[in-house]
Amino acid sequence: MKVIFGINHPAASPHYVEYASLAIASARQVGYEPVLLYDGESPPIDVEKIECRSRFSQEMRAALRPDEYRIAAGAMLRLEIPFLFDDEYVLYTDVDVLFLRRLEMPTVVHWGMVPENRAESYFNSGVSVMHVPELRETAPGFDAFCRQAILAGRLPSLCWDQGLINAFYSERITKLPDIWNWRPYWGPNPEAAILHFHGPKPLDSQARIDKEYPASLRPPFFYAAKQEWLDRRNRLLGY
Fold first, then answer.
1. How many CB atoms lie within 10 A of CB 41?
2. 225, part of any domain
3. Which pLDDT score is estimated for 120?
4. Cα atoms in the 13 Å half-sphere on the side-chain side of 198
5. Quick one: pLDDT band at residue 123, thresholds 50, 70, 90?
6. 186 in any annotated domain
């Protein structure tokens, strides 16, 4: 089963190659087949890599500041997956994740995601099950919607690809169990399969965490999860 990652290199953060390296190593450890999409220079990571660029790059360059474009260039790569793979389903994740165990691929119509907040119907795209043929078929309408939103300057406020997917696909997104995209600020969960550091990251300094994130996003379990990430990094990457 393939799991796809995407990165713009050099990335907006100097730590993203390290995050990607551990996400890939932990995915491989639990039995997934990792593939890395990249825009820019080839990242120094031992994995199958595919160089690609967002088909919306022209519109993004016209509408975004350079710092915004660097973020969008990596985030929007997941939207290229339907044109790069012939699998019926693939799993995409952001690089700030840790794979804890493998799950069987669920059946979804277009996208499968976990809500941004657990009771909401707005979804977090950081872990996405993608029904590749269906997404390829709906691409013309989605592309027109994306280009209009990007050129209107809405991409940053939409949170990049995430807002575009939620706005266009809406009720066609299948809700996945929380264990597919578990966040440290939700507390411990022995059933979690993918731990997503949505919010403070394992390599953020304590000063940055204190300054940029409210206490609700850094409860005691965040620090336990951060230590687990560091321990896995040491074991799998030889730090």
1. 10
2. no
3. 85
4. 20
5. very high
6. no
Domain with 105 in it: what CATH number? 3.90.550.10
What gap in Å lies between CA 88 and CA 29, rounded to an integer? 23
Residue 119 has pLDDT above 80, yes or no: no
Is residue 129 within 8 Å of residue 112, measured between CB atoms? yes
* Predicted local confidence at residue 11, as pLDDT: 80
183 near 127, Cβ under 8 Å? no
Number of domains in the chain: 1
Q: In angstroms, rounded to a whole number, what is the distance separating the alpha carbons of residues 177 and 85?
A: 25
Query: Residue 12 above 80 pLDDT?
Result: no
Evaluate whether residue 81 is within a structural domain: yes
Contacting residues for 44 by C-beta, under 8 A, at least 6 apart: 17
Strand partners for 5: 36
Q: Which domain holds residue 129?
A: 2-180
